[in-house]
Recover the amino acids of this structure.
């Protein structure tokens, strides 16, 4: 299987505080990779390094086949990113947001129009094309933000706690979009602290105190820890490492 | 380049869709300038005064009519001997009383000198000072020209005062440069810092940084619209100054605009620096108002003369960019000087811009690590 992310001995320190302590993992093409951990476990830090928003203290990292130290520009062309806070411009319409983000990624106007039509159709938002983002309900905004993050067909999309603050039904619908993207061959790297979402991932890694404590499919993890669900797995790991 | 134009389009959408931003950018400069120029006018015009004339001879009548025809004063009340002068002030009707003693003309012709009493309401000390000095100027002038022509006094030194560069002592000459410094500082520094920290607050900054856009492109994209708008504002202020308030531009217009451009660049870099420190819009605004607006108004020499400040404040005033900019534009507009006379101030502004940019880059890197 093709590796799209390779992390070897990644260390990130802030002064004497070690946020990421020798991380090692691979992520494969088309996979939905869940990155779990309590707040402050170091998952956002690691994700920022993978996106080129922050540089590591030491270790080797390759994203989309490019080196994180030397080829950040190439990496940025091949990834999509959706931040924790919902990341479209509220004072611009759907079409204006799409136009802006396509411009940044160098998508030609004709491609843009074609893709925009498809996107609006898929999301049932054809009539809302010229509505301001600020006037849409949160669930729609998040779906749109995700669709815009993968508008330029990146190899990998990074989602930083994308479903914070929405109800379980909207969350489930959001995950349908993630599955579609994964079917198209886009690798999804998602951080979350909702354990029901962990079940939806192909593989999950669980972080605690800057270290990866477990990494496997949800099925195997449940077997390994003798747990009924991911919630229990998570709690057991947290207790073991205390 | 296409990326950049797309970015600019987005920035202008933000600006045009936010009524508050639009008001600050387009309305504030005009309102401020008109307010300072028209309402907060420290020039004396048509001040009401009272005359207490105990002689009623030709000289006192002529002096009275000179005062009234000067344009500075109007007759509010004519007092009779024995009237309570203080009572007039208490009623607040007049600001000054001019009192001539008895036998005014005879005394003047016999002794070659005579006393006039000017009583002013000094509960407003500035006005009182200006009123009395205007009145004594007019009276002296009259006496010298009309009465003492034929009398040669030995060893007399006459001082002749001319107010160069602002003969009419118009306060608007002072306000136009001051307002210009203040507005450019406000729009350039405050608006950019708010607009950058807004992206941080909304989380869109991370998305931009994770995109192929380079940080420098992001910063330039954020700054360019405000550079343009500030420049338009500088022009508006100058046009209003020249055509409504009659402030002259004696020096080169192009040089004036070039210096304004430099000042705007300096203020923009300061705005970027503030945005690297401030985590959100509120803090950015707070820093801008506290660190920029108040010092600009109080310490730049725009409202209060720097020479009269206590030493610590005088030292601090050196760090205020508008202080130097005000010197530069006053020189160009009122005195018509070129770069020869303001190179020092120009270098200081350049140095400040450089320091702000260097600090911003340093802060930005720290944040990224």
């Amino acid at each position: 299987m093709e590796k799209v992310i390779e992390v070897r001995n990644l260390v990130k320190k802030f002064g004497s505080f070690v946020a990421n302590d020798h991380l090692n993992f691979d992520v494969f093409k088309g996979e939905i990779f869940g990155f779990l951990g309590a707040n402050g476990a170091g998952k956002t830090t690691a994700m920022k390094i993978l996106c080129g928003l922050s540089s590591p203290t030491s270790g080797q990292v390759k994203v989309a086949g490019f080196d994180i130290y030397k080829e950040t520009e190439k990496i940025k062309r091949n990834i999509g990113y959706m931040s924790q806070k919902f990341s479209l411009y509220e004072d611009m319409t759907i079409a204006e947001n799409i136009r802006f983000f396509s411009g940044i990624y160098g998508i030609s106007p004709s491609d843009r129009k074609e893709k925009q039509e498809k996107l609006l159709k898929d999301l049932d938002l054809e009539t809302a094309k010229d509505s301001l983002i600020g006037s849409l309900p949160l669930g729609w905004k998040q779906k749109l933000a995700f669709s815009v993050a993968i508008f330029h067909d990146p190899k990998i999309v990074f989602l930083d706690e994308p479903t914070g603050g929405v109800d379980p039904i909207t969350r489930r619908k959001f995950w349908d979009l993630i599955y579609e993207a994964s079917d198209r061959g886009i690798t999804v790297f998602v951080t979350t602290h909702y354990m029901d979402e962990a079940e939806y991932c192909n593989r999950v890694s669980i972080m605690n105190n800057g270290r990866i404590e477990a990494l496997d499919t949800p099925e195997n993890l449940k077997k390994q820890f003798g747990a009924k669900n991911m919630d229990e797995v998570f709690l057991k790991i947290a207790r073991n490492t205390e | 380049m296409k990326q950049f134009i797309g970015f600019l389009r987005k920035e202008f959408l933000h600006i045009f869709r936010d009524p508050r931003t639009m008001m600050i950018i387009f309305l504030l400069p005009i309102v401020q300038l008109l307010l300072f120029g028209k309402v907060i006018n420290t020039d004396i015009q048509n001040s009401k005064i009272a005359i207490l004339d105990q002689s009623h001879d030709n000289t006192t009548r002529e002096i009275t009519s000179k005062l009234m025809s000067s344009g500075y004063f109007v007759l509010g009340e004519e007092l009779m001997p024995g009237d309570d002068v203080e009572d007039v002030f208490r009623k607040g009707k007049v600001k000054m009383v001019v009192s001539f003693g008895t036998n005014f003309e005879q005394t003047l012709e016999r002794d070659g000198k005579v006393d006039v009493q000017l009583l002013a309401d000094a509960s407003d000390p500035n006005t009182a000072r200006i009123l009395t000095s205007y009145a004594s100027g007019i009276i002296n002038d009259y006496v010298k020209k009309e009465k003492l022509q034929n009398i040669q006094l030995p060893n007399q030194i006459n001082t002749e005062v001319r107010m160069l560069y602002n003969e009419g002592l118009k306060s608007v000459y002072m306000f136009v440069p001051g307002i210009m410094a203040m507005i450019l500082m406000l729009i350039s520094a405050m608006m950019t810092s708010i607009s950058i920290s807004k992206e941080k607050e909304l989380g869109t900054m991370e998305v931009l940084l994770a995109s192929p856009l380079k940080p420098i492109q992001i910063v330039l994209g954020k700054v360019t619209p405000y550079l343009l708008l500030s420049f338009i504002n500088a022009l508006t202020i100058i046009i209003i100054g020249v055509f409504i308030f009659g402030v002259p531009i004696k020096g080169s217009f192009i040089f004036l605009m070039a210096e304004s451009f430099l000042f705007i660049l300096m203020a923009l870099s300061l705005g970027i620096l503030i945005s690297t420190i401030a985590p959100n819009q509120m803090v950015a605004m707070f820093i801008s108002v506290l660190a920029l607006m108040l010092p600009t108004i109080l310490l730049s020499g725009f409202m209060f003369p720097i020479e009269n400040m206590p030493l610590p404040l005088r030292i601090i005033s050196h760090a205020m960019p508008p202080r130097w900019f005000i010197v530069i534009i006053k020189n160009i507009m009122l005195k018509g000087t070129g770069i020869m006379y303001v190179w020092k101030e120009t270098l200081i502004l350049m140095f400040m811009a450089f320091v702000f940019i260097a600090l911003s880059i340093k802060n930005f890197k720290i944040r990224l690590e």
